[in-house]
Amino acid sequence: MNGYGYFRDDLEAVQYAQSVGKNQMQRWKRYGIVPKALVKMFSRYFTSVGKANLVYRDLRYGDFLTLLMRGPYKNELGRYVCEKFYHDLLIAEMPWLESSFASADYIYREMARQ
């Protein structure tokens, strides 16, 4: 399989997804704890060492969204990837926000020109 939806044709994402076990899926459905495979995939963009390493703790969905938006990021590319994923997750859950994001994007472009 070549991935699905957001991760279509992303072979690395497919490999991570194949490592998600039954228990992780149950914890996601029951408690909203993000599967370790997704955390591992995104951990390459974050600066975290030792016990602060994301892989060693359970992240609830809200905490994961906060982490995507606020970092700490390893570099600018990591920040862009995480912000884009955060944006897309919010739009998927609340489609009416898309017009708000579009308005904000326009405002930021205008401010950058000045």
How much is the radius of gyration in Å?
16 Å
- Roughly how much helix do the residues carry, as a percent range? 55-70%
Low-confidence segments, given as residue ranges, are none
Strand content: under 5%
Order of helices and strands: HHHHHH
How many individual β-strands?
0
End-to-end CA span: 47 Å
Based on CA inertia axes, which overall geometry fits? globular
Mean pLDDT: 78
- Describe the main β-sheet briefly: none
The domain count comes to 1
SS class: mainly alpha
| Tally of contiguous helical segments | 6
Q: What's the quick description here?
A:
The protein is mostly helical and 114 residues long. The protein contains six helices and no strands.
Can you describe this structure?
The protein is an all-alpha fold. It has one domain (5-113). Helices cover 62% and strands 0% of the residues. The protein has six helices and no strands. Helix 1 runs antiparallel to helix 3 (36-43) and helix 4 crosses helix 5. It is globular and about 35 Å long. The N and C termini lie far apart (47 Å).
Which SSEs are present, and which pair or pack?
Layout: H1 11-18, H2 22-31, H3 36-43, H4 61-70, H5 76-93, H6 97-113
